[in-house]
């Protein structure tokens, strides 16, 4: 096979039905009695929706935060979790799906079995105040994580969560001192990771983020002119939600930088919230020289999303890398 053709291999998985990953713990409707049992404070936020089912008001940031706290405690054993006001409070089922999809990539190199334990290291680019990917990833697979961020307040919050749950040996945090860099100045020479993951800012401005939130309320039938709604139900600081050029510009920068660390990360990856940005991502990956590319579709109800993973190693080199997982400790 010509070198150029081999470099451009792109295995795009078909879009699944509106369902979560089979290993995702959040299948079906939420069991509110069990969640309240795990976290009694949730009880005061539970309401009955127009369909006669128990739910919470997802337009209420306080309710969303307490709901996330209950999910983390009930399903992942996270006893202590909190974030500062105004910081991103992410949807946990979708975040878990991303991790399970990445685990499947590693399983392909491990006889179909997801590798567990501290030999698997993952880099969470922009871990935020919530530290959600390291918390779920370590709970599910006992992987080691390095979380990075440019926001000192976010890192302080994440560190408080890590320490409160005695996860210091599993989750490390590191500040990226250069806001316009992703990997440069962050990764140390010789430092390697099986995975890198990222939830990029997908708006180009605060006004665009606000407009998207209002459109969400309108679609959900919750836009009440008499009620003052929060700007965003999941919160979020500027660096979490928007950047110059929006998602497309950030993804191009992320991919371009990744080429400089081609031998230090087995699989790079990122969420891509806007399907229209996939051609831009493909072009950037071709330019960067990625050898393998995967686009993995995800779905939660009517919400469709996807992540893109890429590697600068061919399959033979990846399998050689994976041999270290089987070596005696």
From TrEMBL:
Enzyme Commission number(s) = 2.1.1.181
- Where are the compositionally biased (Basic residues) regions? 1-10
Compartments it resides in = Cytoplasm
Q: Where is this region: Disordered?
A: 1-25
Q: Which domain of life is it from?
A: Bacteria
Q: Which family does it belong to?
A: Belongs to the methyltransferase superfamily. METTL16/RlmF family.
Protein name, as recorded: Ribosomal RNA large subunit methyltransferase F
The protein's matches in PANTHER family, at most eight in alphabetical order, are given as:
RNA N6-ADENOSINE-METHYLTRANSFERASE METTL16 (PTHR13393:SF0), SAM-DEPENDENT METHYLTRANSFERASE (PTHR13393)
- Write out the function statement from the record: Specifically methylates the adenine in position 1618 of 23S rRNA.
Q: Which reaction does it catalyse?
A: adenosine(1618) in 23S rRNA + S-adenosyl-L-methionine = N(6)-methyladenosine(1618) in 23S rRNA + S-adenosyl-L-homocysteine + H(+)
Recorded GO terms, molecular function?
Answer: 23S rRNA (adenine(1618)-N(6))-methyltransferase activity
Q: What SUPFAM superfamilies has UniProt attached to this entry?
A: S-adenosyl-L-methionine-dependent methyltransferases (SSF53335)
Q: Which Gene3D superfamilies match?
A: Vaccinia Virus protein VP39
Q: Does the keyword rRNA processing apply?
A: yes
Pfam family of this protein, just one? Methyltransf_10
Family matches, as InterPro entries: METTL16/RlmF, rRNA_lsu_MeTfrase_F, SAM-dependent_MTases_sf
Q: Which UniProt keywords apply?
A: Cytoplasm, Methyltransferase, rRNA processing, S-adenosyl-L-methionine, Transferase
């Amino acid at each position: 096979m010509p070198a150029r053709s081999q470099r451009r291999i792109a295995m795009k998985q078909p879009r699944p039905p509106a369902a979560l990953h089979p290993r995702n713990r959040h299948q079906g409707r939420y069991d509110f009695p069990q969640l309240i049992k795990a976290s009694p404070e949730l009880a005061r936020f539970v309401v009955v929706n127009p369909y006669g089912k128990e739910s919470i008001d997802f337009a209420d940031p306080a309710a969303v935060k307490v709901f996330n706290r209950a999910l983390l405690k009930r399903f992942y054993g996270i006893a202590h979790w909190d974030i500062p006001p105004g910081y991103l409070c992410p949807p946990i089922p979708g975040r878990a799906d991303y991790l399970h999809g990445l685990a499947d990539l590693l399983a392909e190199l491990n006889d179909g079995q997801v590798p567990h334990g501290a030999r698997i290291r993952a880099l969470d680019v922009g871990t935020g105040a919530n530290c959600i990917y390291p918390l779920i990833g370590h709970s599910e697979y006992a992987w080691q994580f390095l979380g990075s961020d440019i926001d000192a307040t976010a890192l302080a919050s994440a560190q408080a969560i890590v320490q409160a749950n005695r996860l210091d040996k599993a989750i490390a945090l590191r500040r990226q001192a250069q806001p316009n860099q992703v990997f440069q100045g962050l990764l140390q020479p010789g430092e390697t990771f099986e995975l890198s993951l990222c939830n990029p800012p997908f708006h180009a401005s605060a006004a665009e983020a606000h407009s998207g939130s209002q459109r969400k309320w309108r679609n959900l039938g919750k836009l009440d002119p008499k009620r003052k709604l929060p700007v965003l139900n999941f919160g979020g600081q500027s660096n979490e939600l928007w950047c110059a050029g929006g998602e497309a510009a950030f993804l191009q920068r992320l991919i371009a930088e990744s080429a400089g660390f081609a031998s230090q990360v087995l699989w790079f990856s990122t969420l891509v919230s806007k399907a229209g940005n996939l051609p831009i991502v493909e072009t950037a990956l071709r330019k960067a020289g990625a050898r393998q590319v995967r686009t993995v579709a995800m779905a939660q109800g009517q919400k469709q999303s996807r992540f893109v993973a890429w590697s600068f190693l061919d399959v033979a080199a990846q399998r050689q890398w994976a041999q270290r997982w089987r070596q005696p400790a």
